[in-house]
Design a protein that fits this description.
Shape: globular
Order of helices and strands: HEHEEEHHHHEHHHEHHEEHHEEEEH
Oligomer: single chain
CATH superfamily: DD-peptidase/beta-lactamase superfamily
Bound molecules: glutamic acid
CATH architecture: 3-Layer(aba) Sandwich
CATH topology: Beta-lactamase
Structural class: alpha+beta
Largest sheet: 5 strands, antiparallel
Strand order of the largest sheet: 3-2-11-10-9
């Protein structure tokens, strides 16, 4: 399969979609990003990398970080985490408070903000220096030591974190947050502000593509069963209240972030990262969604 040609063709076809979406502006630093950027990177398990457009430009990974923190917590706590977070699609926006009241402070899944806050809270209990631990983990799984926090985005997000603070305090009232809420939201804003490019991100998902094995450190990050579960969660919950539609259109597990990044993979085969900052009304990259749908269609391969 000539992936170079496939992504070059899709890039030309989808580029005209520029202008149909809107860059996230509820975090001021995200609104400063030039909307007309678009990159694609494909990483195969065999070790080949293919790229087109702005695949080497760093951006804020935002909610894609929720996959990394969940993998870290799963390694340490195993099934224990599922006492505090559910595993069902929410059907609600990523930052909704409504469901939490009905469900007694137990978030629907680890990929909405409330669920990710619980996961990060457990990380804070596990590590003395959680921010360093997160960076070290991400550097290890993508084989690149030059991954860091974008301090400008982290600070901007922290200054506009009222809703995440509200979610965390609310869950604390149900006993589902153990640590200081200000510290928690600070760590959470940093994980969202990790700066990576499409190539780094496609590589960072290789351990999931290879059923838990990190090819860069030859280390089993998750068991085969844990990797399967993480993939299943991404397939059902990875795209906010558009998760069903993404599974329908692209047929791969994946995760998006409001920075405009989307990563997805076909187990045993390849991972693909797309970035374009303009979002659709569900908070997913409009061009990213379109690209991934065309990709699995054009290569005649998906998980189904
Ligand atoms: N940092 C963002 C927030 O908490 C992440 C949202 C996202 O990418 O879904 O609002």
């Amino acid at each position: 399969m000539d992936y170079e040609q496939v992504i070059a063709k899709i890039y030309e076809e989808v580029k005209p979609f520029w202008g149909q979406g809107k860059v996230a502006d509820y975090i001021p630093a995200l609104a400063e990003v030039n909307p007309r950027q678009y990159g694609i990177a494909v990483q195969t398990l065999k070790g080949d990398t293919y790229q087109v457009g702005d695949a080497g430009t760093r951006f804020s990974i935002q909610s894609i970080s929720k996959v990394f923190t969940l993998a870290m917590v799963t390694r340490h706590l195993g099934d224990e985490i599922w006492k505090s977070v559910g595993r069902e699609p929410s059907g609600n926006p990523f930052n909704s408070l409504v469901q939490l009241e009905h469900e007694q402070g137990i978030p629907r899944n680890p990929f909405i903000n409330a669920g990710a806050l619980v996961v990060t809270d457990r990380l804070i209990s596990l590590y003395d220096r959680p921010k360093d631990a997160i960076l070290e983990f991400v550097r290890g799984i993508c084989g690149n030591d030059d991954i860091y926090y974008d301090k400008h985005i982290a600070q901007s997000e922290r200054e506009h974190a009222d809703r995440n603070l509200a979610l965390a305090y609310f869950m604390k009232s149900f006993g589902n947050i153990k640590n200081d809420v200000e510290t928690l939201v600070d760590v959470y804003c940093h994980q969202c502000a990790i700066a990576m490019n499409c190539i780094d991100l496609a590589r960072a998902f290789l351990f999931l593509t290879d059923r838990g094995l990190n090819p860069y450190q030859q280390e089993q990050i998750l068991t085969v069963s844990q990797a399967k579960r993480l993939g299943a969660l991404m397939l059902t919950c990875g795209f906010y209240d558009e998760s069903g539609d993404f599974a329908f259109r692209a047929g791969m597990p994946g995760k998006s972030g409001v920075g405009g990044g989307v990563v997805a993979y076909i187990p045993g085969n390849l991972s693909i990262a797309v970035w374009s900052p303009e979002l659709n009304q569900h908070g997913n990259s409009l061009i990213g969604m379109e690209t991934l749908e065309r990709f699995t269609t054009d290569i005649n391969n998906s998980i189904f």
